[in-house]
Specification:
The chain has 2 helices and 14 strands, in the order αββββββββββββββα. With about 220 residues, it is an alpha+beta fold. Helix 1 crosses helix 2. The radius of gyration is 19 Å and the shape is globular.
């Protein structure tokens, strides 16, 4: 009976882990879990959606959902990857309104910091500045396509290769600029970084699954 119960628990944990993996081909992360300064995190409303096309092309959609009176612009995004990804090269950037904006964004950077949230594996930042009309206003988005290099391409990469926390515990971040009055500097426009932290239920699920797999092997 003990073996039967343990086997049943193991099976449930394994099924949960498989279900998580199966639903992770396209993943959307909210960028408003935490804020880098006194700006309320809820005011930094944005998201990134990660998907892998054809096994070696990363599609990253950066969306701005801020609304009045916040109405921030977005001019940068940071995210991570596992050891199966060694590099990304930007091939296209298509704005939901204005058309192609590839020239307005720098090549994919690696190992850069998002203020207050530590270093991330990869980043895309606008190469012109806050006055550039190609920044992402409220209600708009940009779809970036990047070619993936690394061992995961042998078996086809998935969004799961890009959904993990950095050394500071954050999965992704974005910079919000040209917002409302800065709470820390009245009379000046606000700017802040918003970041994503892993959901506790997801971390607990994966941790429990790995623990039970270890016990099963023993």
């Amino acid at each position: 009976m003990r073996f039967g119960i343990r086997g049943a628990v193991f099976s449930l944990a394994l099924m949960a882990a498989v279900t998580f993996a199966a639903t992770s081909f396209a993943t959307t992360l909210s960028l408003s879990d935490v804020s880098s300064d006194a700006t309320p995190a809820a005011s930094l409303s944005g998201s990134i959606t990660l998907d892998v096309l054809g096994g070696n092309t990363l599609s990253l959609t950066l969306s701005n959902q801020t609304s009045a009176p916040d109405a921030f612009l977005i001019n940068g995004v940071w995210w991570n990857a596992d050891a199966g990804v060694t590099g990304l090269s930007l091939t296209a950037a298509t704005h939901s309104v204005s058309g192609d904006v590839l020239a307005a964004w720098t090549p994919v950077e690696s190992g850069t910091n998002a203020n207050g949230f530590g270093a991330f594996d990869f980043a895309l930042t606008d190469g012109v500045g806050a006055s550039n009309p190609n920044l992402i206003p409220s209600g708009e988005s940009v779809v970036f396509l990047m070619t993936i290099t690394g061992s995961c391409t042998t078996t086809a990469c998935t969004a799961a290769n890009f959904v993990l926390a950095n050394g500071s515990g954050y999965q992704a971040a974005a910079k919000f600029v040209s917002g409302p009055d800065d709470p820390e500097s009245p009379g000046n426009e606000d700017s802040a970084f918003g970041a994503v932290i892993p959901e506790p239920t997801t971390a607990m699920l994966l941790g429990t699954g790995l623990l039970l797999i270890g016990l099963r092997r023993r």
